[in-house]
Amino acid sequence: MTVDELWTLHVEVSQLLQQKIQQEKLRMDERLRQLASAGRSYPPARYWNPDQPSATWTGRGKQPRWLVAQLKLGKRIDDFRVQPQSKGRVSDHPAQSSR
Fold first, then answer.
1. How far apart are CA 77 and CA 67, in angstroms?
2. What count of other Cβ atoms lies within 10 Å of the Cβ of residue 36?
3. The model's pTM
4. Residue 97's pLDDT is what?
5. Of residues 37, 18, 39, the one with CA closest to residue 29
6. CA separation, residue 17 to residues 2, 11, 45 (Å)
7. Which end of the chain is more exposed for a tag (fewer CB within 10 A), N or C?
8. What pLDDT tens digit does each residue of the chain (99 aa) get?
9. What share of the chain is helix, strand, coil (3-state, %, to 5)?
10. CA separation (Å) from 84 to 46, 73, 79, 81, 97?
């Protein structure tokens, strides 16, 4: 191949690579947008603090201090359970105790 032919081939390959890079960037940007809009879903609260209703616990991980203190006083964990409503939502009222 002559130098001119090699240079022409180089230009063609460079243009093709640039187009593929642009397409891949667009594909990756779209995927990032999808991931960002998905967000993280957290499990619903299963237990609540009647003294401070905004304090809840999902039942996963370490028990919160307010729950540990109540359990030490002799209360049962079911006394703090949140009653589920339809479609996975939880109510603001605790479960009724069987006492």
1. 8
2. 8
3. 0.46
4. 45
5. 37
6. 22, 10, 51
7. C
8. 899 999 999 999 999 999 999 999 999 999 998 888 777 777 888 999 989 988 999 999 999 999 999 999 999 999 999 887 655 444 555 554 444
9. 50, 20, 30
10. 8, 26, 14, 9, 15
Question: Helices then strands (H, E): number in the chain?
Answer: 2, 4
Instruction: Mention every residue, 6+ apart, whose C-beta is less than 8 A from residue 75.
Output: none
Looking at this protein, which amino acid is placed at residue 34?
A: Q
Which residues are registered as beta bridge partners of 52?
A: 49
Q: If we measure between CA atoms, which residue out of 92, 91, 98 comes closest to residue 77?
A: 98
Q: How far apart, in Å, do the first and last CA atoms of the chain sit?
A: 94
Q: What is the pLDDT of residue 53?
A: 87
